[in-house]
Fold these 3 entries.
Entry 1:
Amino acid sequence: MKRRFICLLAIVFMIPLLSGCWNQKELTDLAFVMGVGVDKGKNGEKFTSSYQIVIPGNVSTGQNGGGQGLPVVVFQSSGKNLLETARIATRKIPRRLYYGHTNLLVIGEEQAKAGILDMLDVLDRYPEFRTTTKMIIAKNATAEEMLSTLTNIDKLPVDKISKTLIVTEEMLGENMIVTIDDFIASLVSDGKEPIVSVFTLSGNLSERSTDKNLSSAIPPVIIQSDGLAVFKKGKLVGWIRKQHARGVLRIMDKVKSTAISVDWDQKKDAIGVSPTRAKTKVSAKVKNGQPHIYITVKEEGVLEEADVPIDLNNPEIIEKIENKLSQKIKKEVLAAIADAKQLKSDIFGFGEKIHRANPVYWKKAKQNWDERFVDLPVTVEVHAYIRREGVRSLPFWSDMKK
């Protein structure tokens, strides 16, 4: 009797192990979506979705290399919401869409201006779609055009865009990686509006999807980053570009490295410095019912270019260069704040700082914070230091001057 009980108990515990892969899906039945694009709908529909699907045989890196065909294919479908567009896409795609490898969401400019709130819930809710997926805005282009542009360094266009985001954030400081999670967090936050990196297309767009864009040493169409998109209440309201975008990242303490040039002896951009360490502190105070923001930037860098005869062994010269750097950084920060105020969008989270500093004041101010933000006084203090001068102190210009 005891032996029978043990056998029965063993069978009970083994049943879950015998269930097998009840929800297994064959790879040949899946279409791996690498990037999703959303544009304004066609034929009266609300959205038009684009799906960049990888062709595995043409991007493999085995001993014999990949196939000879194009690495990706892009399909479109339109519907009343993103769930419907995905289902309707099966009319054209003979496989089930699989989003486990999706790492890019592209939103066309027209759709971004119309608003993107109605597309966020399904992206946040659907378990197969990762909310760590990066977001970008296609400026002067549609999401479909961006996703169907072939690239020659990285076989997959979404990889090219993702890597460009990483490199420009680390080396230039004019773009930042924003995920779906990041966007939603800024959207629901009191006193902060979202920003998203921007990409554009340049060249002959009619050749963006052809072999010529893969085989030419000078591609006819190039995907490139172009600053930041500013949102307000879920709608695109404007752009911040180049050094002004770098000012935004400085305030957010996101600048890892960049290149700063200052004038010297009436020669424009004669001195070039690369920051190696940067730290920004933002604080808020409310005095006599009036809020005030204080920004302190501390930056250390290496002098990497001197196109004038200059004595870099002279501490007074170094101090003058540091002062010029501080002034230029301060100018960029103030310009970024001015751009955001013009758009009436607190992308820096100054409202969050004030909320923490004085919750009582914020309770009254948050109702019309967009208007108060425009007149918000901001004090900027910058301290820039040069720690090294490269492999030589005196440039060859000094020898030419003798």
Note: Residues 27-240 form one domain.
Entry 2:
Amino acid sequence: MSLTVTQTAALARTQTAETERARMLSSHLADSLTDAGFARHFVPKLWGGEAGSFTEAAEAAAELGEASAATAWCAALYAAHARLAAYLPEQGRQDLWERTPDVRIAASVMPPAGTAEEAHSPQTAAQAGGTAEGWWLEGTWHHASGVDHAHWILLASWASGDTDRTVRLFAVPRDACEVSDTWHTLGLRGTGSNTVRLERTFVPAHRTCTLADLGRLEPGLDRCHSVPYQMVAGAQFLAPALGAARQALRDWHELTADRIRLDGSRAADAPAQRDAAARASAEIHAAGLLLNHALQRADLGEITPRAVAENVRDFAFAAELIAAAADRLVRAAGLRAQAEDCSLQRRWRDIRAAAGHAALDFEAAGNLYAQARTPMSETAR
């Protein structure tokens, strides 16, 4: 197994309070994610990476999410962003991974921001970047999770030189960007999803690709590099929340075990409490099954528009299930769950923040599924 999270999870648990206060991971914790194999998991084998499976990545992120959803969030995104970078031209991949596949990559992809202008003057471009082909990129991008500890960052922008208004991804060294401390949130506080600003900078053509390139089918590619982005995008946000939900259920049992009602009976024995625990556990379990089945489809199944839509649907519905479970547990835990240092309350905040990500929006997922479904005569799945 290429991903090992036991030591990282233990470290994340000890740094929970520090991570919340700092609103970002410590350098030690970020390095531990690299040691666990997240940064290299989807890096092509040519550059020393694992070209690993989606199922394995999600299982590791969910396991880490039981210790810290914020840590797992950064871990999952460091892995996912390396997969996106694998679609850069060969020279771009060499720039990133020539020395090591253990390169942490942050990203701000959706919505596209900034401005990108094609470098029409070979002389000017050559002076700026040592090559005659490239783009001038500048602007402000928000919510770049884990950017403070990244080595590179992928920035998405509309390319003004493309006639069809193509969205392009640009790989930029982290040191070329200014990071502003703007991440002040209720949930996922420790992800350090700060704002990135870039002055007018030349980006060589080999460090850019289009959003449409993600998941392009080419002979000889590993499976993880031949799956459409949309088919797996939701997993990187869902898996950390799933792990947090699993631990939230344990936290709830521990929190309510000695709670006594006014009549002297144990609160945990009340029918309403038992119902809450049973329903929440079923919702969390069902979400895990949906995630696993969707990723098995991505790892092994036939890639069709219907399969992509089913995965998007399943990720979004699983997010609704775990959000409902977290709500149920917090309500059933009583006043003690409202304490600022209550672990259940923290996990509820993290789950709610993760479930609100645009990639897990069920309305959009439902629209995609409706467009991709086969004729009504076929049995619905």
Note: The CA atoms of residues 65 and 72 lie 5 Å apart.
Entry 3:
Amino acid sequence: MIKIQISNIEEFKNDYLLKVKDDVIKRIKYLKYSVSHLIDPNNINDNEMAKAKHSTKHIIDLIRDSKISIDDLVVAKYKNTLLTYTTGFRINHIDLDPLLIFLDYLLDDTNDSLNDLLICAPENLFTKNTTLLNNYRINSEIYINILKNAFLYDSEIGIKIRQFFHEKNITNYCPYCNMTSALYSTNDETGKIADQHQLDHFFDKATHPLLSLSVFNLVPTDYNCNSANKGEIHFSDELHLNPYISGFKNDMKFVPIMDAFGEVVQAISLKLHADRNSYVWKQLIGDEDFQDLAPEHGNINVFQLYKRYNNSGILFSARKLVKKFRNVAANEQSLRRILDEIEDSPQDNYQNFRDWYEDEIMTKFHQKDFGEVIFSKLNRDVLDFVFDNYPENFHESVNNILTNSYMPEYGAE
């Protein structure tokens, strides 16, 4: 998995608020009207009824065994309908006051509460959701289902959110697999869509409705990863890795499995370099020691990376890469020419080697750039593998370059 890199994070967050905040405020207000009306049907502002009727129907339908007709909530009938449905203990057994307090909190601009929710940092999303529900005593199923009406990711607000991600195009390739496009583009002549990503809710919107519209809970991805692989799987911070927080880095590396003669790539192994009891291990493959045993846990399993990276086309490319890198490693004159193309200072050597690699392999050398080009993680891991495992001539300089490239100042996450 590749970490999503956003160059101007503050601009990104501010632009998102400009795009969706007003719509979310409107929805919260309408839900607040409904809650207020159900708490006290005798004190209803006439201007609020038409705006609140759909939210009111949603709440009554959740509380009662049978659904109410929207026709019973037209302005002329609205108050009488609510008076009818709030007598006989049909809905009075649900205390709506905590919900009203929470909605007022979100609408209070002085505390930036709604901003904090919509642009909450990815590492704080789950805690933010849990803390709000617990602090306002609205963590029961009925409250959560009522809140879905204000945070529903439907076609109305969904189109604005998708437009935002289309405009930003924050990653070229799916961060979950680095195999397929996650760009949005249209034909300049016809206006037809040429490329289009999907948006995955990292924390599913059914279980975590407060996070349905949070920008860092929305991951641009491809169809296979979002719909075919993840589907309805419930993600968590403990058992899954969020690409806004981190990529695989060196905690997982693609490693070629060679034949008995060390000449031909027979398979691609996904090697873990993390402590067995660490969060990282669980985020990669879950609680198991081996891949594919817990397909709902760990990004490697969920996104079927072992299977997908062992298809015949990728193995063919990996064989060619290993051969190319070994030829360079074995030829001191060729390697020296790459390193010393301009001057022989360490900094120049580093730049020259990176330029050679990116020109020859047509993928990115640094982790922070992996999302820009397909298969960047795989190709870079193969490069590291060759220089780690085939020490022939003049490797010390190259190994230093490879090691340094994983330092933050050179391009690590």
Note: Residues 155-230 form one domain.
